[in-house]
Amino acid sequence: MKIRSLIIGLFFWAGIVSAQNTPKENSLLWEISGKGLSKPSYLFGTIHLICPTDFSLSDSLKNAISKTQQLALEIDMDDPALMGTMTKTMFMADGKTLQGILTENQYAQLSQFYKDSLGMSITSFGRAKPFMLMGPMFNKILGCEPQSYEISLMSLAAKQKSEVIGLETIEEQMAIFDTIPYNRQAEMLLSMIDKLPETKSEFHDMVELYKKQDLQSLYNLTLKSEFGMDGQDEVMLFQRNQKWIKRIDKVVHEKPTFIAVGAAHLGGEKGVIALLRKDGFRVRAVGK
């Protein structure tokens, strides 16, 4: 099992100020300047998994990343210790198991779905946090072998020898999921399977809004998602956004940086764009 694929799958769930600071333009790419910066940095909203037919790296994006010297993702996916750390944090505490937190019928349903629809056995997930089981489901939900903006951006960064850094650690990110009880995580997983057509429809709507670069509508859809935030928007979005501002301030003053985080983090009054503007930066939309 590829750890990067699991992490990007988790990104999907973790990512989906005054009014004048809220972004109005439809754009995924933003230039950050002011507050003593000698050179601009850039902010880009990703969708963590998307079908290749919907994937696109614009000339504007390639031009922006060529002007920077480091790539900041939500976590440092280039860290050689990532796999070991992920393995240590993926299991439930106190010896809990999937069979222990699910009823016999629920476990049988989950096992059958993974066998029939994904060609996998869930026995290898025995002690894993239920959210970890969502990663392999995205091929089925999207109806394709998904492509990742993060992996593609890392490839562009590597070509120009830009360092990859993270705005948070894998431990911080996994701790977010620990705020949701294991049994509730399992219920959300089973709900996705029970309502697979609705799940596919919601993801389709999300992709369409992303292609339109409609940040506000994408933000609104993330908050009302039946399968995503589950009332955890304060922890999954807003608190993380606030923490990132100080970290972004630090890295952009060190060197020009291309910052890429889930697009749902950009919109709204508590989004990264509004918070950066409130912090004294100029943040303007960059044309397609």
Overall description:
The protein has 288 residues and is an alpha/beta fold. It has 13 helices and 6 strands. The chain has a 6-stranded mixed β-sheet, sandwiched between helices. A hairpin with a 7-residue loop joins β1 and β2. The chain is globular, with a radius of gyration of 19 Å. About 3% of the residues have low confidence.
Brief descriptors of the model:
288 residues; 6 strands; 48% helix
**How would you spell out the order of helices and strands?**
HEEHEHHHHHEHHHHHEHE
Poorly predicted sequence stretches spanning 5 or more consecutive residues: 12-19
Question: What's the Cα radius of gyration?
Answer: 19 Å
Overall 3D form: globular
Count of runs of 4 or more consecutive helical residues: 13
What separation lies between the terminal Cα atoms?
A: 36 Å
Report the helical percentage. 40-55%
Query: What's the main sheet like?
Result: 6 strands, mixed
Strand content: 5-15%
* Average pLDDT rating: 86
Placed side by side, the strands forming the largest sheet appear as: 4-3-5-2-1-6
Number of strands: 6
Give the helix/strand class. Answer: alpha/beta
Question: Can you describe this structure in just a few lines?
Answer:
This protein has helices at 3-15, 59-66, 82-89, 98-101, 104-117, 138-142, 149-159, 170-177, 182-194, 196-211, 215-224, 233-254, 272-278, and strands spanning 29-33, 41-46, 70-73, 163-166, 257-262, 282-285. It has 288 residues and is of the alpha/beta class.
